[in-house]
């Protein structure tokens, strides 16, 4: 898990639910947020490791080796790193898509049942723009379509790998991500303001449903978290 | 256009249709193929430039400056570079997704009506795996979901940019691409053989329908080219 807008509130919800360990991976350490998490439930060991999802696969594997050596078992990976800025094509794709694929690929070394691993569960934070694009940010939306597709494929591979997967797809949520952002080639300079006119949800509402989706632990689910609701998307094509 | 399996046959069809110019962009020059194209219709000027879609945006813009200076006008861009090899995560994403976005972004400098450009048309070669993933190649399929989404967003931006866009989505086609390829983490070592057991189409059949889709020039169309047929996908979500 991370410490972004949805990430921090979701981490609070997870700590309340009371796992043995919660490992926070993010680019920048935020000791105040970590302390806050620790204070919520002293029974949960909260640790932080700096992690940038754009590093090469080998580096991610090294970090995971450290984490697995310390915790022995890891039950759930939440891939939640994301940026929204269509002026930054390469970075958007590197963080939102390649980073998620690489982190997933790296953890398979430890989880894949074909290698004697115990299996595991992956919650990928995608976005409703993965199926209903915000066309003013076509690169962001496309990167989210990619990870929705990738997650559904992962779920179909669960019988082979022993690793289940589901996607968490928030609608417009009042995070710093959507406060101000650039459209592709400035096709719509007011895109952030226009989104703000739509009904939105708070990060608290979104995080609450997120925890419910984690508890459901349902392989292949495409969870839509919008307007404070949690719905399973039934995709018929 | 390029000179891959579907690319060469489609280029032949385009030359027969008789535009003033056809510019072939591909990583490696293939003089025999270029000569073959020139022989089909001597009225069409066929030129070749080496182009690797993974180069930085600035380099693509430089190449396009050369091409636009020579031709004065360009009516259609076909983005067709693609690889299928889920052992190569970064390269798959760089060619199939980032390369297509960057080439599109670069040509907007010349076409965008907000800059006084004349508009244009973009045919993006995606894949049916963009909407029905082959889950044994989840990275490839996800990269194709990304470009299907990106193309649909481009189409919605046409009123702003003056540039229309549609996607060409071939089903399984007898190309060198599907002859032999790697699944993600070798989840299915026989994936290429298994695909071969499905009904397929030849590159000639696919190219024929491709030319029809180009002639239709329909903004926002999601063309499915499968089993020798051409169908518009109506996506209701």
Automatic annotation (TrEMBL), chains A, B:
- Taxonomic placement: Eukaryota, Metazoa, Ecdysozoa, Arthropoda, Hexapoda
Organism, scientific name = Drosophila formosana
One biological process term from GO is: alcohol metabolic process
Catalysed reaction(s) here are: a secondary alcohol + NAD(+) = a ketone + NADH + H(+); a primary alcohol + NAD(+) = an aldehyde + NADH + H(+)
Q: What is this protein called?
A: Alcohol dehydrogenase
PANTHER family associated with the record = 15-HYDROXYPROSTAGLANDIN DEHYDROGENASE [NAD(+)], ALCOHOL DEHYDROGENASE-RELATED
Source organism superkingdom: Eukaryota
Keywords linked to the UniProt accession? NAD, Oxidoreductase
* Enzyme Commission number, as recorded: 1.1.1.1
What protein family does this chain belong to?
A: Belongs to the short-chain dehydrogenases/reductases (SDR) family.
- Keyword NAD assigned to the entry: answer is yes
Gene Ontology terms for molecular function: alcohol dehydrogenase (NAD+) activity
In Pfam terms, one family for this protein is: adh_short
Q: Which GO terms describe its cellular component?
A: cytoplasm
Signal peptide range: none
Q: Enumerate the InterPro entries for this protein.
A: ADH_Drosophila-type (IPR002425), NAD(P)-bd_dom_sf (IPR036291), Sc_DH/Rdtase_CS (IPR020904), SDR_fam (IPR002347)
Q: How the protein assembles, per its UniProt entry?
A: Homodimer.
